[in-house]
Amino acid sequence: MWKYVIRRLLYAIPTLFGISVIVFLITRLAPGDPIRLYTFGALNVTEEDIQGLRAYYGLDQPLASQYVNWITKVVRGDFGMSLIYHQPALGLLFERMGATLQLAFSALFLQLVIGIPLGVIAALRRGSWVDNVIRVFGVIGHAIPQFWLGLMAIILVSVTLRLLPSQGVLTVGKDIWDIPDRIRHIIMPAFVLALAGIANYSRYLRTETLDVIGQDYVRTARSKGLRERTVVYVHALRNALIPMVTALGGLLAVLVSGALVVEQVFTWPGVGQFTYAAARQKDYPVIMAGVMVASTLLVLSYLIRDIAYAIVDPRIKVK
Amino acid sequence: MRHWRTTLAVIATVALVGTACGPSQESGAGGGTSAPEEKPVAGGRVIYGDVPDIQRLNPSTSNDATSSRVSDKIYEKLIIADYKTGEIKPWLGTWTLSSDGLTYTWTIDPKANWSDGKPIIGNDFLARVKMQGRSKVTPNKSVFNDVEGYQDYSTGKATSISGIQIDSANPKKFTVKFTKVFCPALANVFGSAPMPEHIFGKYTVDNDPSKVVDEAPENNAPPVASGPFKFKEWRKGDQVILTRNENYWKGAPYLEEWVQKVVADSTVLAAQLKTGELTAGLLQPGDVADLSKVDTLKLYKWPDNGYVYLGWRTNNPNVAFLGDKRIRQALMYGINIDEVVKAVLFGEGTKQLAHTPPVAWAAAPASELNAYAYDKNKAEDLIKSAGYTKGSDGVYAKDGKPLAVTVVTNQGNKTRETFLQVAVEQYKQIGVKITPKLEDFTALVPKLTGGSPEVEAVIIGWQLGADPDPFTIWHSSNVASPTKAGNNFVGYSNPEVDKLIDQGRNGPDCSQAARQKVYQQMNKILNDEVPYMFGFAQNRILATDARIRGIVPGPFSPNGDWNIHEWWIKK
Q1: Are B496 and B532 in contact (CB under 8 A)?
Q2: Has residue B98 got a pLDDT over 80?
Q3: Do A170 and B238 touch (CB under 8 A)?
Q4: Higher pLDDT, B334 or B15
Q5: C or N: which end of chain B has fewer Cβ atoms within 10 Å?
Q6: Distance between B2 CA and the closest CA of chain A, angstroms
Q7: What is the DSSP string of B217-242?
Q8: Is the pLDDT of residue B364 over 60?
Q9: What angle do CA B126, B129, B134 make, to 5 degrees?
Q10: CA B300 to chain CA centroid, nearest Å
């Protein structure tokens, strides 16, 4: 087992390296110039000032040596200073990680507690109007773009009905530990972020439950005279949930990257909002740090998925 | 969301983002909005919505309008621009100028202290100049270039700045000597707020140029303030909280707190003003009709010291015809700007006829400018007089070269995109073909400041500072080229204009009357030459909670908050 984990971790190194090269090239070759952008409109800025700044950040070097400089520092844990904030890029990202994780886990929670029961109910009432409604919801939930849903939710829930706050994590002036206020702020963004996942899980679980319910051991359980509820929730659901582990893997990373749009719409001060702003300003060190952190999370979550898979399903063994 | 961000980013030649003022009234009643029987009361907070987050709270290293909005409330400047006229007036300091026009003698107000009780002194201004000079990351390094000894200090060749001397008897008195007469000095040099030497002094080491302020933690969490508010907390990506400075030299402000909150875009900003989550914010014209119906809000409108224009490249061989004044004049006559203002700004703007907006003292009187009233026939006559004939496709051409221009603007800015659409339509009617092109702001800026031949014409805007010096925009030494960045994107070069700009900048007569004459003349030439279709000046529109009193907005206070210390909230 440990051997497997270590081997997978070693595999991760070339993967991350490859990602770093590609992202580095994409950010550098995209049109635009962070120094010209940053100095735009500065009073009395001279060409020498611009060249000086470019040299200070090493942007006057050939691309290859820029990459080598960057990667040698990254190996030592130094992602460089943000061009915009003049603070370490990685530190800035981690400062915002808390907000993103709060949002991601809230969304995950909603996906599970809403998505799973919906899927099971749809399967048990197969063909009924309930099933149809849930299936239609599944398609719609998957198709609605997050930014649109977010804006509509703000207009309806915040502006028209005045039920929930539309932006940020906390009402201005409230104590940072005011949990009820925080919950009121997280409900809308978490729902918007969760919607596609809820739809996904309900569809997924409907199929799995239908599959499992037709199997012999379920019939055996029924024929033993067990109550229907026990049959479904103890025997059938447990097995139907096994493939869900696959879906859960990578979910964290997907939620983190998916939070970009939701964070932007709801001004949620997380990693997504921050990386997006950095991309708009061509803040190379922050973009690179953001992408590398997200990639590392993705690689790790796939690893965790595979291990979890082996634990949940005795038919699979890691070698 | 890009809309706002880019609007804010295109802030050029910003000498004094955020402050402007006349002498303060001791009574504290700012005027304008408060009925005479209302008595100001202390307390309450203003929650101001802004689209991007702040970047840094050390004005010596920052270059963005959002950060300035906050740091201007923490660090007070020596001078202030009158919010109505832009005239520079004494504020934290008073000055006298030597007869040769080179040496300013400053005295800082005797009452003026930092929030920790230490007096604000000449050394604090010196600390500001030193930290900016040695900073590796500041875009504002050259602001003090004309101060004697500054460049040597900045490069580490000298361990002191010979041009700045502190009076040994009175630490609040100091002199600043320039190497040459520099008329915009008051706004552009002394508009740099003194920084607390007792906090930041340790980061700049005179004999070690490698020691710089750039990574000082105080840059993001200022421990002391000279302005009406003190820094309390920056919740990154969310809000900055400032709290009342009880030691403010003009008397503690009424407001308890100023919170600047990040919002996603202008639509959300408008929505949050409605719900009361925000109590102040600058609006886009499109939101005015809706928000003026909300009775918990009050709207303030005032003309801007800036404009949105369509600039023609006069030095691009691909569009050589734009070098011909007759063609440019035809393009000025051939578009109905009043229609544009109606369509784009919902009426919240006025046609611009020359560089200096009419609100500034340097503007030429409208009576002396050609108004270029919309006239399609006149436009076509001018094109014909330049030797062009209309082809079967309805486009004028000469020697097989049609009058066809690609106009680029930054994507996501609705005002400019609509302006571009209208230009395509209306210029087609006078036989000029416009190909619209949208480009991301990040990609567009380097092409503009680098003089890329890809740019044939551009729609973009200027937000101007209190001093009318247009050197960076119109002087031929600032023509944008691949080897030298410049704000003269259109490549305009006119020796007569250069001479007038030099005169307005380097005197020898720096009096407002002398400079006014020079700039009026320059504006008349630009009005005749029209290297830009000068477009329009957009009104600035501030929406606030109707209970907030004391707001006195004006063109030289772009955020309407120059007298924030006099704002108060009716209970």
Answers
A1: no
A2: yes
A3: yes
A4: B334
A5: C
A6: 9
A7: GGGTS-S--SSSEEEEEEETTTEEEE
A8: yes
A9: 125
A10: 19
Name the residue among A32, A43, A171 with its Cβ closest to that of B446.
A32
Q: What is the pLDDT of residues B290-337, one digit of tens each?
A: 999 999 999 999 999 999 999 999 999 999 999 999 999 999 999 999
To test the contact with chain B by mutation, choose from A28, A38, A43, A155 the residue with the greatest count of B C-beta atoms within 10 A, namely A43
Tell me the CA distances in angstroms from B390 to B327, B381, B383, B396, B398, one per residue in order.
Answer: 14, 11, 10, 4, 9
Structure tokens at A7: 């081997």
- CA dist B564 and B561 (Å) reads 5
Tell me, what's the ipTM?
0.85
Q: Does B436 touch chain A (CB under 8 A)?
A: no
Residue B512's closest CA among B466, B462, B451?
Answer: B466
On the question of pLDDT at A114 being above 60, the answer is yes
E strands, B6-157, are 45-50, 79-81, 88-90, 93-97, 103-108
Q: Residue A6 pLDDT more than 90?
A: no
CB proximity B256 to A under 8 Å = no
DSSP B267-316: HHHHHHHHHTS-SEEEEPGGGHHHHTT-TTEEEEEE--SEEEEEEE-SS-
Overall average pLDDT of the A40-56 stretch: 86
Q: Which of B55, B188, B238 shows the shortest C-beta gap to A43?
A: B188
Q: pTM value?
A: 0.88
| Token representation of residue A225 | 């005279």
What's the mean pLDDT when you consider all of chain B?
91
Give which of B442, B483, B545 to mutate to test A binding, by max A Cβ within 10 Å.
B442
Contact B141/A at CB under 8 A: yes
Q: Which amino acid is at B6?
A: T
Label residue B152 exposed, middle or buried (CB < 10 Å: 0-12, 13-18, 19+).
Answer: middle
Q: If we measure between CA atoms, which residue out of B7, B523, B6 comes closest to residue B307? A: B7
**Do residue A36 and residue B485 have CB atoms under 8 angstroms apart?**
yes
Question: Which pLDDT tens digit goes with each residue over B503-527?
Answer: 999 989 999 999 999 999 999 999 9
At B560, give phi and psi (nearest 5°). Answer: 70, 15
Q: In Å, how far is A55's CA from the nearest CA of chain B? A: 10
Place of tokens 């880019």: B6
| Residue B136 in contact with partner chain A when CB distance is under 8 A | yes
Apex B227 CA angle, B26 and A43, nearest 5: 120
Q: What single-letter amino acid sits at A259?
A: A
B272 touches A at CB < 8 Å? yes
The one-letter amino acid at B104:
Y
Q: What are phi and psi of B321, to 5 degrees?
A: -60, -20
> What is d(CA B472, CA B369) in angstroms, rounded to the nearest whole number?
23
Give tens-digit pLDDT for A222-270.
888 888 888 887 788 878 877 777 667 656 666 666 688 899 889 899 9
